[in-house]
Amino acid sequence: MPRCAALAVLFATTAYGCTWISVPTEDKKQWVVGRSMELGGLPVPGTTKEVNDPWIFRTVPKGTALKPDVVGIARLRMCLGMKLDAWTAKYSYAGIGWVVDGESDHNVYDAVNTEGLTVDALSLRVSEYGANDTKARLPDGGAPVNLCFINFATYVVSNFATVGEVKGALASGALNVLAAGGHRDADMFGYVHWAISDRHGGKIVVEFIDGRPTVHDNAVGTMTNDPHYDWHLRNLDTYVMLGTRWADPKTNYETEIGIVPLQLSHGANTVGLPGDYTPPGRFVRAFYLKEFTARNNPPRSVADAMTAVTGVLNAVFIPKGVIAHHGQLANATAGKARGGAAPPVDPHELDLTYDYTQWNTLKVPGAARFHFRTYEDAQWRMVDLNKVDWAKGVTETFIVKYDTPVRDITSEVNGS
After folding, report:
1. Which DSSP symbol is given to 56?
2. H or E stretch at 112
3. How many CA atoms lie within 13 A of 262 on its CB side?
4. pLDDT digit string (tens) for 260-285?
5. pTM of structure
6. Closest listed residue to residue 236, CA positions, set 187, 307, 291
């Protein structure tokens, strides 16, 4: 197989996408964090099988002993054989994680804790973590905490109360984040970067480049996926012509059909806004939409901010079947390399293997509230961490069990 074709097959084997935004209330006293999860099928090494196990909402009280062991996808050669550290949760937290083949762990990939710290893991396939170096030492001779990258979100949300604390721990070298081989491996769960925020409005993006952590202050309150975060910041300049005002042509002429050019309808200020679902397209679309609504209709309350964030999440919602299936590309490329046609693909076998919006979340750090909705049911469901009975220990609830997207109000219309 030609080298280019081989690379195309390699990078077509996984597809992951997510969008993250933060919107403040007008007085900047509260923030609402929104996130979409678009996760394609996960290939199992050495097979054609793909896993798409149910997502689960879990609550974990402070004092819980947490192990570096992880289930399912994380066993796909992520950090096997490494001497990783266990820890005890300093803060109670709640969020979404996995249950695979009946096995569970305490990991979360989208979460908030009782102190109002939020953390979200989003795909970044170009990430490069530390290799299998568990003998690293701090300047004072002490040992850092050795973590598999897949445990990083759980460690952060269970140990820190503010963005400043996270930045300090990373700057000091206290966290040694590792992965098998250090860099990506296309036949396992895609690598990630993290969006972290707190109740005070602090927002950062944490990425690993060349094995070392890079921390960005997330001034634009937006994050998606590849490439690196700073690339997306520069890419915003490409769309500087977008604005919040009604178009005002500087030149116009009286013609046989009237004055031209003339804006005849709404929306001209968004002409040029990307409509695609690539990470760059979603980053630009999410950023400008949230900025336009914040400037023209500033959220006066948390409820207003939740509505604004919901609107932006709707604008990046991916229905099943919209994103091209990566297996189609891989098969087509392999077929061309053999000089023949790609084998036929049964569309009914593809519904778990392309990106679509599996779920959305809203988090209100200042109130320690977590909301979620699923692909099948757009009704937001909320958990108030201040009211959780933490004495019950770890709890788990499958989020896909909810399926009531339509409310019948015929009886109300009939006055009964």
Report:
1. E
2. strand 110-113
3. 9
4. 777 676 776 777 899 999 999 999 99
5. 0.85
6. 291
